[in-house]
Amino acid sequence: MRSAWFALMLLAGCPHPKEDEPAPEVHANEAWITPKQVQEAQLQVQPVAAQDVGGVVATSGRITFDDLKVSHVFSPVTGRVVRIMAQPGERVKKGAPLAAIESPDVGTAFSDLAKAQADLVAGEHEYKRQKELYGEHAGSQKDYEAAQGNFEKAKAEYERARRKAKMFRAGVDNVNQEYTLRALIDGEVVSRNVNPGVEVQGQYSGGNAIELFTIGELDTVWAMADVFEVDLARVKQGARVMVRVVAYPKDAFEGVVDWVSGTLDPVSRTAKVRCRIKNPLHQLKPEMYATVSISVAERRALAIPRDAILRLSDQTIVFVEIGKTPAGLLRFERRPVAVDEEDGGDFFPLTRGLNAGERIVTSGAVLLSGML
Fold this sequence. Notes:
Number of strands: 25
Oligomer: single chain
Largest sheet: 6 strands, antiparallel
Mean pLDDT: 84
Shape: elongated
Distance between the termini: 9 Å
Structural class: alpha+beta
Number of helices: 6
């Protein structure tokens, strides 16, 4: 340390200490320099003060479909796929055919409808006959009530069969018992999970039906962000949002917050925030991970400039001006601090290490670090 002090004195043009005069001892965490060196190195010093911070809440998120613009297509019938009429990447209109399924469920549905209709006609005739006989005191009340009950059961069975057949009718070819699976919305075929010859399970057969097609619209997508409880009160519906993904690091995708969850995840202590994002070039894909920056109201807090901070191993440090030596050298102390970097911006809020009014080096601190 003695040799460093002599070097500083030489740089400053100061006279050498006398032989019998001991050189001052520089503390381990301090750097001493002359006012001239401060000027030449263009060191900038300013007091710690309250600043407007926290204009952005940065968090992680995941890209998903807008659930009103996506359709997960299952087969309502059990059978064998005989033709595929739509491929991934193809745009389809509502009602466009996707696949043809040969299914015995089709014949069964219309057979059940015909049988139910015949039973309804027979039940109605018997009910009317028993009603007339009972009115003429030529039939028993028991027979009349039984005919009435059978007629009501026949009506219920007919209605059930009619509704089931109606569900199939739009896609049914009665001749060869094929069911045509059709698109329910306009959009792009995002995925196809079935091939010709594959046996598929129907949704209404009690088995485990698989999703055969996914049709979605990617012009607008959602970013589902996880916001911590401490930031939740500042996130408002309608707030501006910027989203970035690893695949396109130079692109920022704009959007707005359109929903904030009313509950928190009990494990992560975060709330889901849904952001509607414009995606005209279809760059954002569902299930991409994203960094979500949500604009929030700024707050006033004790903060230091981003440029004042240095990283030393696992420590965050700044240099604080603490006075002068008897020889007129300026003293700068290296001090560890803790800041909240989640708020981003040009200033980081202080959580520990400095008091208001203390003067810190905001430019050129790396030069002082090299002197220690």
